[in-house]
Amino acid sequence: MSPALQTRNLTKKFGGFIATDNISLNVAAGSRHALIGPNGAGKTTLINLLTGFLEPTSGAVLLAGTDVTALSQHARVKRGVARTFQINRLFADMTVLESVLLAVNERRGLGTRWWRPVRAHADALDEAAQLLTQLRLGAVANERARNLAYGKQRLVEIALALAARPRVLLLDEPAAGVPTSESRELFETIAQLPRDVTVLLIEHDMDLVFRFADRISVLVNGAILVEDVPDKIGSDPQVRQLYLGEAAHV
Ligand code: ADP
Ligand code: MG
Prior knowledge:
By secondary structure, the protein is α/β, with parallel strands linked by helices. 37% of the residues lie in helices and 23% in strands. The chain is built from ten helices and eleven strands. The chain starts with a strand and ends in an 8-residue tail after the last helix. The structure holds adenosine-5'-diphosphate (ADP) and magnesium ion. Magnesium ion binds next to helix 1.
């Protein structure tokens, strides 16, 4: 089976600066793959290349074996690539259930119709409720997103992304700004997503990464230094050197 997501010799230059340096990455279907590396290593740039937000200087992006390098962000979403965005003002003022329902209807193509068959409405409501259960948001379904704790807001953002029924979910530091007391639950919830969604995640906190990932790629200066299972990454001398300040965690 083709990897869910692949890059081939992917390179991105900003002027003379090489932000992504000949990266060939394979993200296996169903995996929980983490991308780690120091600030400025090129992690966010790589995600931007995967979603089509940025165009590569050279190289290719493949989705389930199909070259999508020339496709727009929107076309890639349709093919199953999702990333999270911060809850916007519209969603912030809606209840959690309303906002997820809106996203589900959007995917179903019912979003802009003022009328809709009762059955279709019930199906969408079922689907939204199921997403809330999956993300442990059932208890806050009727609260406004903006009143939620940050960890829960992140989960709403993930629910909105999942409403598109993606095959691949890209998460760029989902725990950023989330208090430590909430980040573990956030990660447990992400880890429990069904395996038909492949997750590629950027995260700084090594404890969270090692708990979550079944595969880790270490990015340094735009290139992959090493890629392996967490145990091997944890004992890799180059990686330990890189994270010397955090040696206790690695
Ligand atoms: P990370 O997410 O690993 O911290 P980034 O991908 O955000 O790293 O950035 C990698 C490098 O590319 C950084 O040195 C950054 O300054 C540079 N960079 C990112 N985006 C741009 C841009 N649009 N123009 C110029 N340089 C950029
Ligand atoms: Mg970044």
